[in-house]
Each structure stands twice: as structure tokens, then as C-alpha cells.
């Protein structure tokens, strides 16, 4: 019995090509990419003008809008996912992401601005003061894990330079 490897290889390649094409001869795409909202050339907004069904190849053409979330970058979307997963608990988000409280608040502010809303700085400073007071009452001042977090705490007025010196000594 003689095997013809060329014919077997040819049949195998033809079968793979047929599997990758749907019934209208279009290449079936398994890999999906997130929708981009900005033109990579001029950086203006892109518009969705066609939708298609991967099952029956039905196509709908028109002008479709994207959600506000489509205009956020990947980092902000990841933060939103973590935020929702942790039901908005800043402490849980801090623990999961490994960032300090002020960094998490800044990330949240960036998302708010990215969605088109304004962040009132006066309200924020009042809210941050209340949060700091609550932390002090509980005796749970957040323990920084890095030198950068300690510097952020000094910048945000959370600790004094003397306290920062003590924290830095504990890190070593």
C-alpha cells in the first residue's frame, strides 16, 4: 500500500480552508478585538456604521452610537471592573490593586472625568477630610508599602515629614 503524502497534505489544507470560511465564502474570524473609539490617524471620534451577525452573516448598515465607556482607555475600564467587583469599597480596591487610598481616589476621579462629568474639588477635599477623620478614629491609618506611597501621603497632607521618616525606617 502506497501513501501519497502530497495528496493527504493538500486535502488537509483544503479542509482547514473550508472550515475557516463560512457559507458565503467569507473568512470566519474567531479572534475579537475591542471597539476602538478614536481614529488612529487623526484622533477624532470614530463612528460605527455596520453591524454583522457571526451566525447568519446578516449585515445592518447605519450610524450607531458607542457608549461613554467605549471612549475610556483600557486602564480605566480595568479600574471600573475592579471597582464594581468590590462593590465600590475603596479598602477592598486598595488591597486588590496594591495602591494607596489617594491613588484609588485619583483613578476614580479620572474615570468620572473620562465619562464626561466634572469633579468638584471642594467636595472632594471635604470628603477626604471626613475619610481621614474616620481612619484616625478607628486607629487604622493605612500602612504604606512603598517609598512612593509615603511621599504621596506627605503630598496629600496625610502625614508629617517626621511620621514619613519613621515609616521609611520601618520599610528598611
Tell me what you see in this structure:
By secondary structure, the chain is mainly alpha-helical. Strands 1-2 form a two-stranded antiparallel sheet. It is built from seven helices and two strands, in the order H-E-E-H-H-H-H-H-H. It folds into two domains: 60 residues, no CATH class; 101 residues, no CATH class. The chain starts with a helix and ends with a helix. The longest helix has 18 residues. Helices cover 51% and strands 6% of the residues. Helix 2 packs across helix 4 and helix 6 packs antiparallel against helix 7.
Q: Determine the oligomeric state from the structure.
A: single chain
Q: Which bin fits the share of residues in helices?
A: 40-55%
Task: Give the overall shape, derived from the CA principal axes.
Answer: elongated
Count the DSSP helices.
7
**Which structural class matches the secondary elements?**
mainly alpha
Radius of gyration: 27 Å
| Uncertain spans | none
Largest pleated sheet: 2 strands, antiparallel
| Overall structural domain count | 2
Please list the strands of the largest sheet in the order they lie side by side: 1-2
Distance between the termini: 75 Å
Order of helices and strands: HEEHHHHHH
Proportion in β-strands: 5-15%
Counting DSSP E segments of at least 2 residues, the number of strands comes to 2
How confident overall, as mean pLDDT?
Answer: 77
Amino acid at each position: 500500500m502506497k501513501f501519497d503524502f502530497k495528496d493527504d497534505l493538500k486535502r488537509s489544507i483544503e479542509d482547514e480552508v473550508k472550515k475557516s470560511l463560512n457559507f458565503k465564502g467569507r473568512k470566519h474570524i474567531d479572534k475579537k478585538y475591542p471597539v476602538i473609539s478614536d481614529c488612529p490617524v487623526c484622533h477624532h471620534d470614530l463612528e460605527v456604521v455596520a453591524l454583522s451577525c457571526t451566525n447568519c452573516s446578516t449585515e445592518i448598515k447605519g450610524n450607531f452610537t458607542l457608549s461613554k465607556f467605549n471612549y475610556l482607555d483600557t486602564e480605566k475600564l480595568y479600574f471600573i471592573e475592579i471597582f464594581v467587583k468590590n462593590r465600590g469599597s475603596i479598602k477592598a480596591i486598595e488591597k486588590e490593586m496594591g495602591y494607596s487610598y489617594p491613588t484609588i481616589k485619583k483613578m476614580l476621579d479620572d474615570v468620572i472625568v473620562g465619562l464626561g462629568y466634572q469633579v468638584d474639588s471642594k467636595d472632594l477635599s471635604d470628603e477626604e477630610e471626613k475619610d481621614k477623620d474616620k481612619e484616625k478614629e478607628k486607629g487604622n491609618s493605612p500602612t504604606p508599602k512603598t517609598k512612593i506611597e509615603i511621599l504621596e501621603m506627605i503630598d496629600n497632607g496625610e502625614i508629617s515629614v517626621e511620621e514619613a521618616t519613621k515609616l521609611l525606617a520601618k520599610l528598611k
